[in-house]
Design brief:
The protein is of the alpha+beta class and 190 residues long. It contains three helices and ten strands, in the order αβαββββββββαβ. Strands 2-3-4-5-6-7-8-9 form an eight-stranded antiparallel barrel. A hairpin with a 7-residue loop joins strand 5 and strand 6. The longest helix has 16 residues. The protein starts with a helix and ends in an 11-residue tail after the last strand. The N terminus is likely disordered.
């Protein structure tokens, strides 16, 4: 059901505007998901340190998120913020949560300005890094995004090294990832 809904949204998007730049020929990688994923341990502040560019994310630097776990919602209320290319501080709020159709580490992104997409935690140690994959494919095309999250705002560090290995091992081209700048001018208020 979820795949049909996402495919229909992708078809509507393509039909309305032509093929966006982030839709390319290919199929999504079949990534592994974190075993025994613990939502409570995953909560807290995360910094994006490397990403596959994402047209739905209006920030280009200082990107950080706060994952607030809720037992009643069985998922996260997420606030993500950062600076746009025009130096404007932007903040979005939404939810990321598991569904009954997949393991807990394979969640769904639900933000007001973004159509629903998978959020797959391939691997995390909860303390220093999280490697996240989001991809939808249909009819020989894919829309692929990847994220390296760190508990600290360091563009170079153990999270990037660990996730580079994890993504490659799972068939994701790490050469597509770009650094997210975290400089002295960053403000972390998410």
């Amino acid at each position: 059901m979820f795949t049909t809904l996402v495919a229909a949204a992708l078809v509507a998007l393509v039909a309305a505007d032509g093929i966006p730049d982030f839709v390319v020929p290919g199929r999504c990688a079949k990534v592994a998901n974190q075993d025994k994923f613990d939502l409570r341990r995953y909560s807290g502040r995360w910094y994006q340190t490397q990403i596959i560019d994402n047209a739905y994310q209006p920030y280009t630097r200082c990107i950080h998120s706060n994952y607030d776990y809720s037992d009643s919602d069985y998922g996260f209320k997420v606030t993500t913020a950062g600076f746009s290319p025009n130096n404007e501080y932007l903040r979005l709020q939404g939810k990321i949560y598991p569904t009954k159709d997949f393991p807990a580490a394979h969640m769904l992104i639900d933000f007001p300005t973004v159509f629903a997409a998978p959020y797959e935690v391939i691997e995390t140690d909860y303390e220093t890094y999280s490697c996240v994959y989001s991809c939808i494919d249909w009819n020989g095309y894919k829309s692929e995004f990847g994220f390296v999250f760190s508990r600290t705002p360091q563009t170079s560090g153990p999270a990037n090294d660990k996730c580079a290995s994890v993504f490659r091992k799972n068939g994701v081209d790490f050469a597509l990832f770009n650094d997210v700048a975290h400089t002295a001018e960053c403000v972390y208020r998410a």
